[in-house]
Amino acid sequence: MKDSEERELIRTARNKAISVVVGLFITGVVALVIFYFTGTAALAQNSASIKEIKVDLKTVKTVPVLNQNKIKNIQKELKELKEAQKEFQKETKLSIKEMRKEQLKMLELLYQIKNQNN
Fold this sequence. Notes:
By secondary structure, the protein is mostly helical. It has helices at 3-62, 65-117. It is built from two helices and no strands.
């Protein structure tokens, strides 16, 4: 082989090796960035469920499992009762307003009747 051919072979081999190393580095950086963001997203999604599990774990230690189910059912019923009570209060307020309007109408009619008799 001639000197110029050897230099050209070494130059192309060096360029290929450098391009492979740079390609591997860029691929590694992209993979690490993707891994970081997916890991962060997964951690954020699971943090709420981890907190719930911690709370449930505390209740398991303090209350027997059968009682826990009863407590959860009672809490659900309590929420439903509170919602029903709020709705009932709204309905009673509306009916009271309507009754007051009717009372005012009746009073006006009574005044008119009284004035007509005088």
